Amino acid sequence: MDTCPCGSKLPFSTCCEPIITEKKPAETAEQLMRSRYTAYVKGAVDFILNSTLEEKRKECDEKAIRNWSENSVWHKLDIISTEKGTSDDTEGVVEFEAVFTESGIKKNLHEKAVFKKIDGYWFYIDGEIQKPKPFIRTDAKISRNDPCICGSGKKYKKCCGAE
User: Fold this and answer.
1) The CA-based dihedral angle spanning residues 42, 108, 77, 70, taken in that order and rounded to the nearest 10 degrees
2) In whole angstroms, what is the distance from residue 129 CA to residue 21 CA?
3) Does domain 17-132 correspond to CATH entry 3.10.450.50?
């Protein structure tokens, strides 16, 4: 069984393949998002372009999309949240994170993607890159002169904090 790269744990042949090969339309914005990710994994650039809203296609650089698709190692897709985008909606937003390796460097693409349904077909309109959230310390910061956390009775700087 060839598991679908979109992370659904379903077979590719019944998950994203029918959408990518245009045998059936995506029923939801999330389903289109998953199939677009899978299209990047599989190098299905025509589907990536065809599933982009027609007015936005002129902004697409087919050569760059093909290069990114073919020269990246695609690791996983995580759907973080969805707003609307059901089979009954005409608009939807899918927040996702795609993890991939490009030029030997592991990267994350965190985006809020906007979709629109026209005549029964979902289309990608645009996406907004999400900035990483700042690290927030949940534990108290250990000062050099505090007692060591290992319980030795020594100051942290003289015990576990010593270089």
Assistant:
1) 0
2) 28
3) yes
